[in-house]
């Protein structure tokens, strides 16, 4: 469900600890991420990885399950509906936006799954530009902890950023999905993807062809609406208005989605 | 025993390391204040059998505050980041400020002085909810305000961060 073109999120598995520790302890991340320069033992790292965490996911490329980063929600106050976000990515991938894309997907997931009203992040001021490139317009700066960090003898600020649920759901979600899709190369939706989406909505798809009638594979009108909704999310843009009534076959779904993708 | 006496108009105030005998009072304090003790509140619902562990979690130093012979609060230093020379302080007093600004300021001066003088930090931060008096009183400078983020008594209040910079760091380019 969390997969988008180029980047995917998956649960943390026991075999990930070594690679994630290596990512967190790389030179750039060591002082700017949670350990602030300290080097925990592998055993201690395993314990700390889940300390205070509400949810977390490994960020991977869609094409490989190897970790390229980690996103988490921690210090959750579920009574008040708040939590803090964390994101770290492989040092050699900095600047490519993969970690930020993973974070945006994760925010989407959190607002879907948890009764959270606000997500906060403490961002090193040198990383703020990278953060803004994805979240510009719906992440508000709540203030700066002046000289929170000490880098190379100079004070650097921590910028406190807030993402509000209402704004995310009303405007940001579709824009983020569009951005993620475009930035990832905007590959047109394939017939196979459409079949997968149909199957997730209850279709019994065996030996499908573009001429396969939706009614013949168990998709009633409600299920078709669900399929169209997921197609909109996949292409990151609204489907052409009024066209849904003409959809009869799997091939029609592909045509509709590609027309929307433009 | 590290005993610190602070003589102020509010009466003799003693700040001493918190021990097992103070835990029951601290538990009652946490139950009374809820969101006004941000660190404890952030750990989730109170449970008496785990409260002792909560009280010392993430803490570098924690003290009981007594005034006029009675326990009135807790103060301490936690989430210390030596690499960057910063930490967080808490000044938690019973009665939602009924002891007055003078006592609050005395305790805040004590704990910030400890952070700078004994532990060598250059800056400390403090969280508080918008419904309460700033724990650091006139010492603290507001740095950030997370709007409508704390549910307390049926209302959403702001969560505010104030800070105090050490006298030495004020003259340093890091500050």
Describe what is shown at a glance.
The complex is a heterodimer of chains A (about 260) and B (about 180). Chain A is of the alpha+beta class and about 260 residues long.
Describe it for me?
The complex is a heterodimer of chains A (262) and B (175). With 262 residues, chain A is α+β, with helices and mostly antiparallel strands. Chain A contains 9 helices and 7 strands, in the order E-H-H-H-E-E-E-H-E-H-E-E-H-H-H-H. In chain A, strands 1-2-3-4-5-7-6 form a 7-stranded mixed β-sheet, sandwiched between helices. In chain A, strand 6 (139-151) and strand 7 (154-164) form a beta hairpin. In chain A, helix 4 runs antiparallel to helix 6 (165-183). Chain A is elongated and about 65 Å long. The two termini of chain A are 23 Å apart. The model of chain A has no long low-confidence stretch (mean pLDDT 82). Chain B is α+β, with helices and mostly antiparallel strands and 175 residues long. Chain B has 5 helices and 8 strands. The chains are: A alpha+beta (262), B alpha+beta (175). The A-B interface holds A 31, 36-38, 75, 77-82, 117-118, 120, 142-150, 153-155, 160, 162 and B 35, 41-42, 44, 81-86, 122-123, 125, 142-151, 156, 161, 163, 165, 169, 173-175.
Distance between the termini of chain B: 34 Å
Distance between the termini of chain A: 23 Å
**Overall geometric form of chain A:** elongated
Q: Residue ranges of chain B: pLDDT <50 for 5 or more in a row?
A: none
Largest sheet of chain B at a glance? 8 strands, mixed
Low-confidence stretches of chain A: none
**Which protein chains make the most extensive interface, counting residues with beta carbons within 8 Å of the other chain's beta carbons?**
A-B, 28 and 31 residues
Mean pLDDT of chain A: 82
Mean pLDDT across all residues of chain B, rounded? Answer: 88
The helix content of chain B is 25-40%
Radius of gyration of chain A: 21 Å
What's the main sheet of chain A like?
A: 7 strands, mixed
**Helix count, DSSP H or I runs of 4 or more residues of chain A:** 9
How do the SSEs of chain A run, as a string of H and E?
A: EHHHEEEHEHEEHHHH
Portion in strands of chain A: 15-25%
Number of helices in the DSSP assignment of chain B: 5
């Amino acid at each position: 469900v969390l997969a988008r073109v180029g980047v995917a999120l998956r649960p943390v598995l026991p075999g990930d600890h070594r690679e994630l520790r290596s990512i967190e302890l790389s030179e750039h991340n060591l002082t700017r991420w949670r350990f602030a320069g300290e080097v925990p033992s592998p055993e201690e790292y395993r314990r700390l990885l889940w300390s205070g965490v509400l949810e977390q996911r490994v960020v991977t490329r869609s094409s490989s399950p190897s970790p390229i980063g980690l996103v988490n929600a921690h210090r959750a106050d579920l009574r008040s509906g708040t939590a803090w976000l964390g994101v770290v990515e492989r040092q050699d991938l900095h600047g490519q936006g993969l970690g930020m894309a993973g974070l945006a997907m994760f925010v989407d997931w959190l607002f879907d799954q948890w009764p959270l009203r606000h997500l906060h992040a403490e961002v090193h001021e040198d990383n703020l530009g990278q953060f803004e490139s994805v979240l510009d317009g719906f992440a508000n700066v709540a203030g700066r902890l002046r000289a929170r960090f000490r880098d190379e003898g100079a004070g650097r600020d921590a910028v406190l950023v807030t993402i509000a649920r209402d704004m995310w759901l009303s405007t940001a979600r579709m824009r983020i999905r569009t951005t993620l899709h475009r930035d990832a190369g905007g590959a047109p939706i394939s017939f196979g993807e459409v079949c997968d989406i149909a199957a997730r909505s209850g279709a019994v798809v065996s030996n499908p062809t573009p001429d396969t009638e939706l009614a013949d594979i168990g998709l009633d009108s409600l299920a078709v609406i669900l399929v169209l909704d997921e197609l909109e999310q996949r292409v990151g843009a609204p489907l052409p208005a009024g066209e849904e009534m003409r959809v009869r076959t799997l091939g029609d779904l592909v045509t509709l989605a590609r027309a929307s993708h433009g | 025993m590290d005993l610190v006496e602070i003589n102020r108009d509010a009466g003799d105030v003693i700040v001493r390391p918190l021990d097992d005998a103070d835990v029951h009072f601290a538990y009652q304090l946490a139950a009374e204040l809820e969101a006004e003790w941000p660190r404890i509140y952030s750990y989730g619902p109170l449970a008496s059998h785990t409260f002792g562990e909560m009280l010392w979690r993430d803490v570098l130093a924690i003290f009981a505050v007594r005034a006029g012979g009675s326990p009135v609060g807790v103060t301490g230093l936690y989430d210390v980041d030596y690499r960057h020379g910063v930490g967080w302080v808490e000044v938690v007093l019973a009665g939602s400020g009924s002891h007055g600004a003078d006592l609050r300021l005395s305790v805040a001066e004590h704990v910030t002085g400890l952070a700078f003088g004994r532990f060598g930090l250059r800056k400390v931060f403090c969280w508080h909810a918008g419904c309460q008096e700033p724990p650091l009183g006139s010492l603290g400078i507001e740095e950030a305000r997370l709007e409508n983020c704390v549910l307390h008594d049926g209302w959403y209040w702001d969560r505010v961060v104030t800070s105090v910079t050490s006298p030495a760091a004020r003259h340093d380019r890091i500050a």
